[in-house]
Design brief:
The complex is a heterotrimer of chains A (151), B (403) and C (131).
Chain A lengths: L1 H7 L9 E5 L3 E6 L4 H12 L4 E11 L4 E10 L4 E10 L4 E3 L9 H11 L2 E3 L12 H5 L12
Parallel strand pairs in A: 2-5, 6-7
Antiparallel strand pairs in A: 1-2, 3-4, 4-5
Chain B lengths: L17 E5 L11 E7 L2 E8 L7 H7 L2 H8 L7 H16 L5 H29 L3 H22 L8 E2 L2 E2 L5 H27 L1 H7 L7 H6 L5 H5 L6 H5 L19 H25 L20 E9 L2 E9 L8 E5 L1 H7 L13 H7 L4 H4 L5 E2 L10 H6 L3
Antiparallel strand pairs in B: 1-2, 2-3, 3-9, 4-5, 6-7, 7-8
Chain C lengths: L6 H8 L23 E3 L9 H5 L5 E5 L14 E5 L9 H5 L5 E3 L14 H5 L7
Antiparallel strand pairs in C: 1-4, 2-3
The chains are: A alpha/beta (151), B alpha+beta (403), C alpha+beta (131).
Chain lengths: 151, 403, 131
């Protein structure tokens, strides 16, 4: 099982800057933020839409490093092996290419991450503020899950 | 739009659409969700899911509270699926601590989660009967659901909110008397569930209203990240119980139920079959419950510091794959980040494309077949707009928003 | 139109007694060890505030024991946990973390009413009054 999964991810080696393990046994590939879209395009091209789904997009604010970390949790089918595609964005200008036109399933995750952490997904027309907490908080430009938001 | 053979010109008729808001308070929708559908006559040409009526900010709340207080907070994300939420969070902590509960505790955890699956699936099937206007069946299923609620009360001490999971085990053990009583209740429940499954298979009202409504193709399921019975009803085998083999699922035999029809009826049938599977699993657990020590850890002696690290736990909740990401910085008594992704979050928001082409009366049926749980979904909130036009685009393009 | 599938079930139900329980005139049958009202036994409580710290709902406030009660020497600060049941989620975390097992648990659940209810009366009834 492990072998079949890793053969699916052969092309990852040219993108991965670093690999680490998120407990329990989820391999996390750290990639450059501009490569994220290429990776998913290549994944679709090589294995098709039926071979994986994007389970979660988890953003974490890291003010100490002045970064926002973005993790795409991808479940590879049919083995259901979870892998993580991890990228770091500049905290003052968190911008990453949207995947919503190639994988519609990321819509909920991208909208959520935008609303809570202020990550901009370039090319996603559905991003919107103000529906999260009360409008007054959103209008002040506060992103609640940032550590310095004061919420 | 008219285009006949031999006609060289296409006449564009502007479509006058009616905008119909369904929810957030609506007789046919029991959850605080605004489903805005645009109808041309009776036919839906576009649907939008507007959320944000039930937001509580649980993820932020988890960051502000300690690890052990969070255990009870995440259990209250959603009432119907509270043990799976707690289990997923507890296992995320156990991965960080490299702790493993004993076999008895792992079996009891599965027992609690499967009892919950039974009552949740019975509930949504009952609600579905009510939505199609079959209130008698609703009442009957809810009456029989009381048996499993009682079983859960015997096991955990409360009908709904179990608070059953703790790091390193469970919070109360069962004795022989309780074991026999739960077994008795489940044995009485089983023929009833078989009967209701037959009703759902054969009754004219149900079949007419559910079959071929809201068909989802397997490729749409994966590209839209739909999980749980919704995916399994379309023949996509996604079940983290079978793949992750957490807790005692590696030792308890069970089948992953899939169907190939992909319509609302198939999703409800998957739920009935899973209910029967769950009853069989519970009976197996009650029979084979191992005795390898006390499953109840002393809560006064739990580790005070959670080591630095990240963990990502998956659990197969009743509605699909539920994931928790927990990050600890190793110093503070509270988690650095907790990310909860509930199944309804994907199933409800990403499925707006499904409604296109249905008639207005079928929208509540299609929505209910997804088992929407807004309290799960809206620990954090999203607005999204799926724009669809009927005539020119493929389904995938539609859902991607290319208009 | 064929005969509805559940007709037999419906007809049988006519002969049965109603399933509805006329609460509150009739009590709901409940397990003896289900999680109901819990309160501190002040003869054991040391006033350590651990339960108040661990309470996920912040329902517990440490309150001074009023004058006129015989307080044990184990409780030098003369405080006790006052549970606000309208906030309490009955998770029994306080019961489980108490280092001296001072909590008394009951299965009493019918506490909803027009007034706020707290554990004051229950807890103070465990202490003797100064004669």
């Amino acid at each position: 099982m492990v072998i079949s999964v890793s053969s699916k991810l052969d092309f990852f080696s040219k993108y991965a800057v670093k690999t680490e393990i998120i407990k329990p046994k989820r391999i996390a590939f750290t990639v450059k933020s501009e490569d994220v879209r290429h990776i998913f395009e290549e994944l679709i091209k090589q294995h098709g839409h039926g071979a994986f789904y994007v389970s979660t997009i988890a953003g974490t604010d890291l003010p100490g490093e002045n970064k926002i970390r973005l993790d795409y949790y991808v479940v590879l089918l049919p083995e259901e092996e979870t892998i993580v595609i991890r990228t770091y964005l500049d905290r003052s200008n968190p911008l990453v290419d949207s995947l919503v036109d190639i994988i519609p399933g990321v819509l909920s995750g991208e909208c959520e991450t935008h609303d809570l952490l202020g990550v901009f997904f370039k090319g996603n027309p559905f991003l919107k503020r103000g529906f999260f907490v009360a409008l007054d908080v959103a209008e002040k430009g506060i992103y609640p899950l940032r550590k310095d938001s004061g919420v | 739009m008219v285009c006949n053979m031999g006609v060289t010109k296409v006449i564009e008729v502007p479509i006058i659409t009616a905008e119909i808001p369904i929810g957030p308070q609506h007789p046919a929708l029991h959850e605080p969700l605004l489903l805005k559908v645009y109808a041309d006559g009776e036919e839906i040409i576009r649907a939008e899911v507007n959320t944000g009526y039930n937001h509580r900010g649980v993820e932020k709340l988890c960051e502000k509270n300690t690890f052990y207080r969070d255990l009870f907070i995440v259990g209250r994300v959603c009432g119907i699926c509270n043990t799976v939420h707690a289990n997923c969070y507890v296992r995320a902590l156990e991965y960080l601590l490299d702790a493993r509960p004993n076999n008895r505790a792992r079996y009891l955890r599965v027992l609690a989660m499967e009892l919950e699956r039974i009552h949740s699936h019975m509930l949504i099937n009952a609600v579905m009967a009510e939505i199609v206007g079959f209130d008698t069946l609703f009442m009957q299923i809810m009456l029989d659901r009381e048996r499993v609620m009682k079983a859960k009360e015997i096991l955990t001490g409360n009908r709904v909110l179990a608070d059953y999971m703790i790091v390193g085990g469970v919070r109360r053990d069962i004795d022989e008397v309780k074991r026999a009583r739960i077994r008795d209740l489940l044995l009485k429940l089983k023929p009833r569930v078989e009967y209701y499954k037959k009703v759902f298979m054969e009754d004219e009202t149900i079949v007419k209203r559910l079959v071929d409504i809201g068909v989802l193709k397997p490729v749409d399921v994966t590209s839209h990240s739909l999980v749980g019975p919704v995916a399994r009803g379309s023949g996509v085998k996604i079940d983290s119980r079978a793949s992750d083999r957490y807790d005692a699922y590696d030792e308890i035999p069970f089948n992953v139920v899939t169907r190939t029809e992909g319509d609302s009826w198939a999703r409800m049938m998957v739920r009935w079959d899973e209910t029967l599977e769950a009853i069989n699993m519970c009976l197996y657990i009650l029979e084979k419950l191992p005795f390898d020590g006390n499953p109840v850890p002393d809560e006064k002696r739990l580790p005070r510091v959670i080591p630095h690290g990240e963990s990502y736990a998956r659990v197969e909740a009743q509605r699909g794959e539920l994931t928790y990401y927990v990050m600890s910085d190793g110093r503070s008594p509270s988690p650095y980040r907790v990310k909860i992704r509930t199944p309804s979050f994907n199933n409800v928001i990403n499925s707006a494309f499904m409604y296109v082409g249905l008639s207005i009366a079928d929208v509540p049926v299609a929505l209910t077949s997804l088992d929407p749980c807004i309290s799960c979904m809206e620990r954090v909130t999203v607005i999204d707009l799926e724009k669809n036009t009927r005539y020119k685009l493929t389904l995938r393009e539609l859902a991607g928003g290319k208009v | 139109m064929r005969r509805p599938k559940i007709l037999g079930l419906v007809l049988r139900n006519f002969a049965k007694r109603p399933a509805t329980i006329q609460y509150p005139r009739v009590k709901t049958p409940i397990e003896e060890d289900s999680r109901g009202v819990q309160y501190a036994d002040l003869t054991k409580c040391t006033g350590c505030t651990l339960c108040a710290l661990e309470c996920p709902a912040d329902a517990i406030t440490m309150t001074p024991i009023p004058q006129g009660y015989e307080v044990t020497a184990k409780n030098p600060r003369r405080i006790y946990p006052l549970i606000d049941y309208s906030k309490c989620v009955f998770c029994y975390r306080c019961v489980k973390v108490c280092p001296v097992n001072a909590y008394i648990v009951t299965s009493k659940y019918d506490i909803a009413g027009p007034t706020r209810i707290s554990s004051e009366e229950y807890s103070l009834s465990t202490l003797k009054k100064v004669s």
